[in-house]
Design a protein that fits this description.
alpha+beta, Nuclear Transport Factor 2, Chain: A, 6-stranded antiparallel sheet, two-stranded antiparallel ribbon, 22% strand
Length: 264
Amino acid sequence: MTKTTTRGSGSGSGTRRTMTAAARAAAKRAERGHHEPGPAATDEEAPGQPKAPDAGRTVLVEAQAEDGWDDPPEPSPESFEGDAPQEEGEPGTAVPTRRGRRLLTSALCVLLVAGLVAVAVLGWRYREGVRAEQARGQALAAARQAAPVVLSYDYRHLDRDFAAARARLTGHFRDEYRKTTTTVVGPTARKYHGVVKATVSAPTGGSPAASVISASADRAVVLLFVNQVTTSTQVSGSRVDLNRVRMTLTRMSEGWKVSGVDAL
């Protein structure tokens, strides 16, 4: 009987100790839950009670032997900025690059057009210069040939001489020549038997005295020294006139024609 009592007493004391430990563990868990947000895993749990699942993502940390547990490192803002999509118009995006390329392309196009225009202008000036140089020689030769014909006549064949002269004239000057020879020169030459022979003067052994004052591709002005020998019933013997003549010539489809004659 004594043994039965002792066992009962010991059993009751063990049961009380077990209940007391469980109560302390429950109180401790309640206190932790009150001060810390969210459930936290503990080593002391009531027997038979299921383990609460961990919330959130798992972070691996290393335990410190002396100082305990350290908080997990917080992610830096740079790690998220690298993954964030860039908005249009921000510095470093592709939009300013495309805009810069468009500006560069436009500038290159402008320079290209300006270069082509400059080349075209220079080419045109070169061609005009070549044509003007050719015109100088052609107009000078035409003036030397036209002067004796236009400035000469013989009362014995005036119609033939005037027709030959008009063939070398053009424009308004041709009309004036026809009017003057018909109304003044012709009647006077017939009346006084006038004969005029014109030649372009030339130094001894040299070329005829003629030079180009100005010339373009289609127009030239030539200065000539012309000698005119005149005979008539009004003059005893012959008279020599030394004249300086400025002759203007114009390029026509059939060649260079005289468009003006002025005595200087």
